[in-house]
């Protein structure tokens, strides 16, 4: 009986992704495991704004202008949109190397190192590349089994290598990397503006009301707002505005927080930042107005371990080992051979169609998920044995 | 050449995976997506150097077009920012459009050039844009001699 005919539950690529992430909405939402501080952030923003809209906006709309609450509403929606975008996006996670790639890299390393005498530690796994006349060292990641691209780093909290790794932010519950850095920056910038706006109009409101009815009676009329709103805004102001200023500085120099903390381009040993265009405007434009990078970590489709009933729109594997071996082991009939090769030749066409059928986001394509550990490899072999 | 296949269909009929070759990224110009055009020794007897270089250079050009920072990317970025990036839920980004072109190009190259020579290129997006994976297939008749050296083909024949 052909293994291809056995129907099983379709396993999505993101379900098999190693690393400590949680997923939602069929893999579209990707976050770190610890989300407590993210909920606190949401609560603080929504809570403060709710109090502002409930207690102060009616007075300000009447006595000052209706544009005041309207602008606050627009700003509030923008802040929440940026926060959710930062928290839910894939920050630029690099998928782990598949076994063949990992073996290939190991062989290259052994060839480069030569034979190491017994008892001696092998040399560190580093590859030197020259970027804009600057030597940059690429480190080997033992978890992901790859040489990390320049500016990538391994996040120990999420257990993933992330491209252009900035930092892991518990306030947004996710890493900040290549794909979501601009959303993070816009979040901090808009949150600074929102905090300044609410703080300013809190004071305007108190002053206007005090002129009418006295300071003490003003505080009595809206008891909930003032301790909560003002205190939150005051502390948020210093931290968020400071953070925005810091990231504006980093963007103008085209540096990441990670590089700044490590002092990679501090000028020691004549190390200059090879990624900077030496022009503030160009650096800002590259970071904030650069292309929207695609997601490479997970792709919708069939995992090489789960086997389904023939080709379905959602499940197109492009793993040649899988397809070729299937048609080999079961000694297929001509009909099965014909269907296998039809699947193969047209798979990418169907892939394009299926990504349209599934609607947003069209960023995801079929791929084989990386095997995280020897246990996974054993699972694969056991599955194969069972089928045979 | 040791093995010849007339098309992708014949490749699947009678081929077994012998080895995989990985074309690494070229970081000499920074973090932009670019692959090395150095010709790997394993493909020496399988494909002409010029054809391989044309494929890799064309792919590099496509990626450069996708990542180009200019008028169009600024416009896209500003428009998206003004709509709080909601527009990305409805609209395909320029990068995604180029990725589709790349996917079509790779399939075209596989069908016309690589499959008849017993090779198959995997789209780099499926490998995290880290490598271009080229699978080298052997004719099943001669696979017995090469299966010992490759763990993948031995595991697949053991299934």
TrEMBL record, chain A:
Instruction: Tell me one Pfam family matched here.
Output: DHHC
Signal sequence bounds: none
Domain Palmitoyltransferase DHHC residue range list: 137-262
Note down the stretches annotated as region Disordered.
300-388
Q: Which UniProt keywords apply?
A: Acyltransferase, Endoplasmic reticulum, Golgi apparatus, Lipoprotein, Membrane, Palmitate, Transferase, Transmembrane, Transmembrane helix
Q: Where in the cell does this protein reside?
A: Endoplasmic reticulum membrane; Golgi apparatus membrane
Q: How does it sit in the membrane?
A: Multi-pass membrane protein
- Catalytic reaction annotation: L-cysteinyl-[protein] + hexadecanoyl-CoA = S-hexadecanoyl-L-cysteinyl-[protein] + CoA
- Which molecular function term from Gene Ontology is one that the record holds? protein-cysteine S-palmitoyltransferase activity
Segments crossing the lipid bilayer? 37-55, 67-84, 183-208, 228-252
Top-rank lineage group of the source organism = Eukaryota
Quote the PROSITE patterns the UniProt record gives: DHHC
The record's InterPro entries line, in alphabetical order, gives: Palmitoyltrfase_DHHC, PFA4/ZDH16/20/ERF2-like
- Residue stretches of biased makeup (Polar residues): 312-327
Q: What biological process terms from GO does the record include? A: protein targeting to membrane
Q: Cite the EC number.
A: 2.3.1.225
| Compositionally biased region (Basic and acidic residues) | 328-355
Look up the record and report any one GO term of the cellular component aspect: Golgi membrane
User: Record's family?
Assistant: Belongs to the DHHC palmitoyltransferase family. ERF2/ZDHHC9 subfamily.
Q: Anything noted about its domains?
A: The DHHC domain is required for palmitoyltransferase activity.
Give the protein's recorded name: Palmitoyltransferase
Which organism was this protein described from? Paramormyrops kingsleyae
Automatic annotation (TrEMBL), chain B:
Lipid bilayer topology: Lipid-anchor
Q: What compartments host this protein?
A: Golgi apparatus membrane
Region (Disordered) spans which residues?
Answer: 140-159
- Positions the record marks as coiled coil are none
Compositional bias ranges of the Low complexity kind: 142-159
A GO CC term attached to the entry = palmitoyltransferase complex
Sorted alphabetically, the keyword list is:
Membrane
Residue ranges occupied by any Golgin subfamily A member 7/ERF4 domain in the UniProt entry:
21-133
Q: Which InterPro entries match?
A: Golgin_A_7/ERF4, Ras_palmitoyltransferase
The biological process GO terms on file are: protein targeting to membrane
Q: What protein family does this chain belong to? A: Belongs to the ERF4 family.
What protein am I looking at? Golgin A7 family, member Bb
Q: Which organism is it from?
A: Paramormyrops kingsleyae
């Amino acid at each position: 009986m052909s293994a291809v005919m056995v129907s099983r539950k379709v396993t999505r690529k993101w379900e098999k992704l190693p690393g400590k992430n949680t997923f939602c909405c069929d893999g579209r939402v990707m976050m770190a495991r610890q989300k407590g501080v993210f909920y606190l952030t949401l609560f603080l923003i929504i809570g403060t704004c709710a109090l502002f809209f409930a207690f102060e906006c009616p007075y300000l709309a009447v006595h000052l202008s209706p544009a005041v609450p309207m602008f606050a509403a627009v700003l509030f929606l923008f802040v929440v949109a940026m926060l959710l975008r930062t928290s839910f996006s894939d920050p630029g996670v690099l998928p782990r190397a598949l076994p063949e790639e990992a073996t290939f890299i190991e062989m290259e390393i052994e060839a480069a190192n030569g034979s190491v005498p017994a008892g001696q530690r092998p040399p560190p796994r580093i590859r030197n590349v020259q970027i804009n006349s600057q030597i940059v060292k690429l480190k080997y990641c033992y978890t992901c089994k790859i040489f990390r691209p320049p500016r990538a780093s391994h996040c120990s909290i999420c257990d993933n290598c992330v491209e252009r790794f900035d930092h892991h932010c518990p306030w947004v519950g996710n890493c900040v990397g290549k794909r979501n850095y601009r959303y993070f920056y816009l979040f901090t910038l808009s949150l600074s503006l929102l905090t300044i706006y609410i703080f300013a109009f809190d004071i305007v409101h108190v002053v206007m009301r005090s002129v009418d009815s006295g300071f003490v009676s003003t505080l009595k009329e809206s008891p909930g707002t003032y301790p909560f709103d003002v205190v939150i805004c005051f502390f948020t102001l210093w931290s968020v505005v400071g953070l925005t200023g810091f990231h504006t500085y980093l963007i103008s120099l085209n540096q990441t927080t990670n590089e700044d903390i490590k002092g990679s381009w501090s000028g020691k040993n004549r190390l200059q930042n090879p990624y900077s265009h030496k022009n503030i405007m160009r650096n800002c434009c590259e970071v904030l107005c650069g292309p929207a990078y695609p997601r490479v970590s997970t792709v919708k489709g069939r995992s090489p371990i789960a086997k389904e009933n023939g080709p379905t729109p959602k499940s197109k594997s492009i793993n040649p080992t899988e397809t070729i071996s299937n048609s080999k082991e079961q000694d297929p009939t001509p009909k099965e051979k014909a269907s296998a090769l039809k699947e193969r030749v047209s798979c990418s066409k169907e892939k394009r169609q299926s990504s349209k059928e599934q609607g947003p986001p069209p960023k995801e394509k079929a791929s084989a998920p990386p095997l995280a550990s020897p246990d996974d490899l054993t699972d694969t072999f056991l599955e194969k044995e069972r089928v045979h | 050449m040791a093995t010849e296949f007339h098309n992708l269909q014949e490749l699947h009929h009678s081929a077994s995976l012998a080895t995989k070759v990985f074309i690494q990224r070229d970081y000499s110009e920074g973090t932009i997506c670019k692959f090395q055009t150095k010709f790997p020794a394993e493909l020496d007897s399988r494909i002409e150097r010029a054809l391989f270089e044309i494929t890799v250079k064309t792919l590099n050009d496509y990626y450069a077009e996708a990542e180009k920072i200019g008028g169009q990317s600024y416009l896209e970025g500003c428009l998206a920012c003004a709509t709080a990036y909601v527009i990305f839920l409805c609209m395909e980004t320029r990068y995604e459009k180029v990725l589709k072109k790349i996917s079509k190009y790779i399939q075209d190259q596989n069908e016309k050039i690589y499959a008849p020579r017993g090779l198959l290129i995997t789209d780099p997006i499926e490998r995290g844009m880290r490598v271009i994976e080229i699978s080298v297939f052997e004719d099943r008749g001669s696979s017995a001699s090469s299966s010992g050296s490759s763990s993948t083909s031995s595991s697949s024949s053991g299934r």
